[in-house]
Specification:
Distance between the termini: 27 Å
Helix content: 40-55%
Number of strands: 0
Largest sheet: none
Radius of gyration: 17 Å
Length: 76
């Protein structure tokens, strides 16, 4: 939120993605969330996915042919 209490429209979550898990994966996620008291699974999964993406962006930079570091807000 900015100083006036309005939300930044660019940061609103309007895109939906669906993930499918098999039974073992689902149980592992449930156990993990229970063990570490994770109540918001959507936030948890979003953070895990984006952490991996940003880590890989960091690892891939710099390359011989890229001049600008990729990020979530800039796309060529």
């Amino acid at each position: 939120m900015d100083t006036k209490g309005k939300r930044d429209e660019k940061l609103l979550r309007t895109s939906r993605t669906t993930l499918l898990f098999n039974q073992r994966e689902k149980e592992a996620i449930e156990l993990y969330c229970q063990k570490y008291k994770i109540r918001n699974k959507s936030k948890f999964m979003r953070e895990v996915i984006l952490t991996d993406i940003l880590k890989r962006f960091d690892e891939d930079y710099p390359t011989l042919f890229e001049f600008e570091k990729p990020n979530l807000f800039y796309q060529k």
